[in-house]
Amino acid sequence: MNWKRLGSRWVIVPGGMALAIVLWLAYVGTHNHGVIEGRVVDAAGRPVAGAAVLLFERGFVTHQEKGRATTDADGRFRFDDNQSHSIQLEAESPELGRSDRRIVRLMFAAQDTRLIDPLRFPVAK
Amino acid sequence: MSRTSNSRLALRHATLVVIAILMLVPFYWVIKTAITNENIYAYPPSLLPREPHLYNFVDVWYLIPFPRYLLNSIIVSAMAVAGNVVFNAMAGYALTQRFPGRKAVLALFLSCMLIPFQATIIPAYLITAKLGLLNTYFGLAFPMLSTIVCIFVFKAAFEAVPKSLIDAARLDGLPEWRIIVRVLLPLSKPAIATNVILTFIWSWNNFLWPLLITRDPNMQTLPLGLARFLSYMEDTTGALYAFAVMVLAPSILVFLMAQKEFIRGLTSGATKG
After folding, report:
1. Chain A: nearest CA to B62, how far in angstroms?
2. Residue A85 and residue B58: Cβ atoms within 8 Å?
3. Could you give the residue range(s) of every CATH 1.10.3720.10 domain in chain B?
4. What is the 3-state secondary structure (H, E, C) of A61-81?
């Protein structure tokens, strides 16, 4: 076998690309369970229990509601079945109203994600 | 080296660097727009990307069947490249031989180069339809399977090979096709690279022919997908430019990988064709 040929750019470039694609697909395959986790807090930063969190999925032109979750005593929520790469999250509560809608863009469809900043209700009027 | 010639060289290099930067500005601008959501008409324009991200590429991948278009383009381009290397090598070799009517064939080939593809598109379509190749990969690659320019590139490269080598191969009992495969093609790598690059780029960027002969959206290639994407998402500049980058990247990559042989092949064609 001519080992010098392995050093050719015709081997290194496609080979490097193939390796990068395989690694990326391996990463995607182990992180695409559709889990979205986060917290909901009020204007003072206290966790809000029992708030509904709405998940909107991006279509071509509009966003459509695809799921709902309810926050626990620590204000945490979790979705297990997100299939999209671009979603919006919004919290609503009878007492506190609606939070701002948070745009969440992912690097691939159904990427497991934990929101760093919680969904925050505005100051009650 | 004298001081004068040193300063001349530096000046020449500086000029070339400035020209190279000017040439690269459009590429930079396309990539910058693709990794931001900036409006290209915004004034004053920002030279550096603000808050760069890769989400536009993700949108392109998922909002249209990009992987399917990519696969179609790869299959069609691979068929066109393979067809060109095989058929053009055979035609180029034939044109280096002596046979009655050779000059007439050369004149016919040269005159055919003057006819634009748009003028022959109706007969090309009718022939493809008669053969039952509409909406097929082979039909998409069909008019690109051999190009006259590339035949002449092979002809020039084969003429540069010493005739004694071919005579020796013939004396050893090699048939004509093995002379091409075993003797001429290994000595004509720049011509092969030129064929690969030109055919790949022409086939990859081809818009009109795939538009005419594809009925099924699943058979569309990337340039058609780009037009479709533009019609859906006319206001998303960032995603549109991301799509353009994804369409252009493979052909630029192939060119960069084979540019040395490509330039050698073109020069050889220019001086001996």
Report:
1. 8
2. yes
3. 55-272
4. CCEEEEEEEECCCCCEEEECC
